[in-house]
Design goal:
- The complex is a heterotrimer of chains A (326), B (291) and C (234).
- Chain A has 326 residues and is an all-alpha fold.
- Chain A contains 14 helices and 2 strands.
- Chain A is globular.
- In chain B, α6 packs across α8.
- The longest helix of chain B is centred in the first third of the chain and has 32 residues.
- Chain B has one domain.
- Chain C has 234 residues and is an alpha/beta fold.
- Chain C has one domain: Rossmann fold (3-Layer(aba) Sandwich).
- Chain C is built from 10 helices and 10 strands.
- In chain C, the strands form 2 sheets. In chain C, strands 6-7-8-3-9-10 form a 6-stranded mixed beta sheet, with helices on both faces. A 4-stranded antiparallel beta sheet of chain C has the order 2-1-4-5, with helices on one face.
- The chains are: A mainly alpha (326), B mainly alpha (291), C alpha/beta (234).
- Chains in contact: A-B, A-C, B-C.
- At the A-C interface, loops of A face loops of C.
């Protein structure tokens, strides 16, 4: 997608989002959904950057989110660091974990990266639940209760009054998505496209696959960690249930709806999925079942998601005007 | 202490043999078609539930022979269908590998939650395949453990024989070694992809039947199995059945020891440590050819 | 036996073959010459159902066979022998040959063809238990040819069988191809500047930039001075 369309879509998203509280600000429930939309849009964007653009099959995105959330909660609860500082520390810590995970596996072939990152995800749950977790303050299988709300410049951002928190999250969201957009459209993005096409060719052009992959891995881990921190101080409690397959696949539905590697798509996918998820909530056990079916159908029927669909409609119109070229 | 250690070792051997079976199935399907199947673990639970259902419908009197006779073809059929319907259409697409991961992940979620809806969240248990135990000077080895061990080793040997001597097995190896060459000699790749997927489904399903009678069947058990099977495959070397065998026994033992010494919550951590160490030091695994 | 009319083939956005028409009569050896990368291999692959995107019409034994997958064509006796050999490296020579007879049509004749192949290539018989990856370049080339013969083909598409071989081995390969032809198998052979190739050919084509630029029999080819200079190396 070219700059113009992308910028237009992003500006529209920002504008609409900024105005929504004026219409919906009265209902806390709707504001809560909007905040969740923004947080998950950041996480989904990071994942899209990694999988869609960098071509790294990372399945540790939820794990990094949870690591960030737990780190922030523990730092602020146990060591009484102010939540804002805790979130930053959590981002740094998550980035460090990201580098640690990336070092052994980013040199390997695709499926092995998927395996290692997914194994991080799987290993995290028993760690957080077990003795080790309790020792560092994760609260074991009960989780962490009563996480301090975020305070900045004397203002408390809590879930009781979501509108200020919404705007704070919106700023965070705008910054993160601009960073990601910058990465995709910069020299880096071009390098990644080259890497995905042919790693050998890219290497001969002097693009070191490993260095780029590790950098982008660290960057997205950092942002995802921050998002985790935001999440925990907003919700006020944490449990290892976040690591269930459920959330993992939900995040994937966001990418499937938006279209992998079709950038602002992931954001739109996140908005749709979070809303849908809330609407499906009354269905209980059937909800994950439906999500499972949904992702299978989406991937099979709409391989490039919404953005792909829109692009197809536009190009087929253009095709009629001009002759097809080979 | 000494007797306890023996118990731990026996458990490691038994579990290791079943892990080897499941890892061999994974090696097969990834080696031939390069598809990363996230639902592999769910097929493990599926095997357990199918056995449980058969037992519930026909009674336990007919025994496991009957269960295997019915469940293996069923699992083959399910695997074949899954490959044809949700994996195969993706192969020609851009980024098909990620897309296969996505649909199989969706399938896993679908299966796990269907189990929950159909069978409930309560754990189910299967009767032991054989009662009684062999006692040699205080050391007790249950016939159940022995039967599981023998059955899984026999299945692996049978699988290996098929791979080396049947047309289908040779064709599968041909596709794994050189897809272009396989196409040239007229091997229909789609059928081979679907068949290997079916065989691997049956292997992990049988693994589920064998292990579920020692533990329990519950809807989300498969995830541990998926990770373990992958760790064994990576550790033993992709595409090497001998490698999976050794790796499975080493990991089975390690797991039994870690569980005994430090507690169950450390088992996955130990697996993870083995995985990362292997990939960092010897990415091709113990016996594998890198690729 | 085989007639292809107005074949067009694309590789991605690249138009590789433009309206190529060729005809191969039963029992002939037809040689296709031309510079590297001008579509010779693609033509063979298009005929054998291995090319990506093909338009046009291919008639084989009075039946249309365009856009059929390779496995169906192998079953009808059309076999491709790749310039890259495409062997199964971790299998023995014997296993490679057995896989050559994978198609339904070849299965009943496996034993007969194995005998035939071992008579043509005695070296392979000596090495039948060896892994394909341990063969020398020449032996691997022989194995690729032998594996192609195992399919019980009536029509062999042989892609640059002399690529990377020493001159004396090249002569050996060409001699074997002639022998195969004398046993009644029709051959479409792709090569580039090999002397003596004309002796083998009943019909010659030259393919340049995806188009047929010359077509004729041995004498016509030898009479064409430009062709002689550039492609026949004489």
């Amino acid at each position: 997608m070219n700059w113009k369309n992308m910028a237009a879509i992003m500006a529209a998203i920002y504008g609409i989002m900024a105005m929504l509280p004026f219409f919906l600000g009265k209902t806390n429930f709707v504001m809560h959904i909007l905040i969740m939309c923004l947080i998950w849009a950041v996480v989904a964007s990071c994942w899209d950057l990694i999988m869609g653009f960098a071509g790294i099959f990372s399945f540790g995105q939820v794990a990094f989110f949870v690591i960030g959330a737990y780190a922030s909660a523990i730092v602020s609860n146990t060591y009484h660091v102010s939540p804002a500082g805790a979130i930053l520390l959590a981002g740094g810590f998550t980035a460090a974990v990201g580098i640690l995970v990336g070092l052994p596996c980013l040199r390997l072939k695709g499926a092995y990266v998927a395996l290692v990152t997914f194994a991080v995800h799987m290993t995290l749950e028993p760690l957080l639940k077990g003795d080790f977790g309790r020792a560092i303050g994760t609260g074991g299988s009960r989780g962490i209760m009563a996480i301090a709300p975020l305070k900045l410049f004397g203002v408390t951002f809590s879930s009781a009054d979501p509108v200020p928190f919404f705007y704070l999250t919106l700023i965070f969201f705008i910054i993160c998505t601009l960073i990601i957009l910058f990465v995709i459209k910069s020299y880096w993005g071009t390098a990644f496209v080259a890497l995905k096409d042919s790693e050998n060719l890219a290497a001969s052009l002097g693009i070191s696959a490993f260095k780029y992959k590790l950098t982008v891995f660290a960057l997205t881990s950092f942002i995802t960690g921050l998002a985790g921190g935001f999440y925990c101080h907003y919700v006020g409690m944490l449990s290892h249930r976040l690591l269930g397959v459920d959330l993992f696949v939900t995040l994937m539905v966001m990418l499937a709806i938006g279209g992998i590697g079709h950038y602002p798509g992931a954001i739109i996918g996140a908005f749709i999925t979070v809303t849908l998820n809330e609407l499906l909530a009354p269905l209980g056990t059937y909800r994950p079942l439906i999500i499972g079916i949904l992702i299978i159908l989406l991937v099979l029927l709409f391989p490039d998601g919404i953005i792909g669909l829109v692009q197809k409609v536009f190009t087929s119109k253009a095709d009629k005007a001009t002759k097809p070229v080979y | 202490m000494y007797l306890e250690l023996i118990d731990v070792l026996i458990s490691g051997l038994t579990n290791g043999s079943v892990y080897a079976l499941m890892a061999a199935g994974l090696t097969l399907v990834y080696g031939v078609s390069k598809a990363f199947n996230f639902a592999y673990g769910s097929f493990f639970s599926l095997g357990g539930y199918i056995a449980w259902m058969l037992m519930a419908v026909f009674g336990t009197a007919k025994g496991y022979f009957f269960v295997f006779i019915l469940s293996v073809p069923l699992l083959l059929l399910i695997g074949y269908g899954v490959e044809r319907i949700i994996v195969s259409p993706l192969r020609k697409r851009q980024d098909w590998e990620v897309k296969v991961m996505m649909v199989t992940l969706g399938l896993a979620l679908l299966l796990d939650n269907s189990f929950q809806v159909v069978f409930g969240a309560r754990m189910k248990s299967l009767p032991p395949i054989m009662e009684g135990a062999l006692t040699i000077n205080d050391v007790i080895v249950s016939y159940q453990d022995m039967a599981i061990f023998i059955l899984s080793i026999a299945s692996i040997l049978c699988f290996r024989w098929m791979l080396n001597n049947t047309r289908l097995g040779m064709a599968a190896r041909a596709v794994a070694q050189n897809p272009a060459g396989a196409q040239i000699v007229g091997i229909p790749q789609n059928i081979i992809f679907a068949s290997t997927f079916a065989v691997s489904t049956a292997m992990v399903g049988v693994g589920g039947i064998l292990l579920s009678q020692k533990y329990f069947i519950s809807p989300a058990d498969g995830w541990d199995i998926l990770v373990k099977a992958w760790v064994i495959t990576a550790f033993g070397g992709m595409g090497s059945i001998r490698g999976s065998l050794y790796a499975a026994f080493i990991l089975g033992m390690l797991e039994a020891c870690v569980g005994w010494l430090f507690g169950m919550s450390w088992i996955l951590v130990a697996n993870f440590a083995v995985l990362v160490t292997t990939l960092a030091i010897r990415p091709q695994g113990l016996f594998g050819k890198w690729g | 036996m085989l007639r292809a009319t107005n074949l067009n083939a694309y590789y991605g956005e690249f138009h590789v073959l433009e309206n190529v028409s060729i005809e191969v009569l039963k029992g002939q050896v037809v040689v296709m010459l031309g510079p590297n990368g001008h579509g010779k291999s693609t033509l063979l692959k298009a005929i054998c159902g291995l090319a990506e995107k093909v338009e046009g019409k291919i008639i084989y034994n009075e039946k249309e066979i365009t856009v059929q997958p390779a496995e169906k064509l192998v079953n009808q006796g059309i076999t491709y022998i790749s310039e890259n050999r495409e062997l199964f490296p971790q299998m023995t020579v014997m296993e490679n040959l057995k896989l050559g007879a994978y198609s339904k049509n070849a299965r009943p004749h496996e034993r007969k063809n194995l005998k035939k192949v071992f008579r043509l290539f005695p070296r392979l018989k000596e090495r039948k238990r060896q892994l394909a990856s341990t063969l020398s370049g020449g032996e691997a080339r022989m194995l690729a040819l032998a594996r192609g013969l195992m399919s019980n083909a009536n029509f062999l598409c042989v892609d640059e069988p002399c690529l990377g071989l020493q001159p004396n081995l090249r002569m050996e390969v060409l001699r074997i191809i002639k022998e195969i032809n004398q046993q009644g198998i029709t051959i479409l052979l792709v090569e580039q500047n090999i002397p003596k190739i004309t002796e083998l050919a009943d019909q010659l084509y030259v393919l340049e930039e995806g188009q047929v630029t010359f077509q004729g029999n041995k004498d016509q080819a030898l009479g064409n001075t430009q062709l002689k200079d550039i492609f026949l190396g004489m």
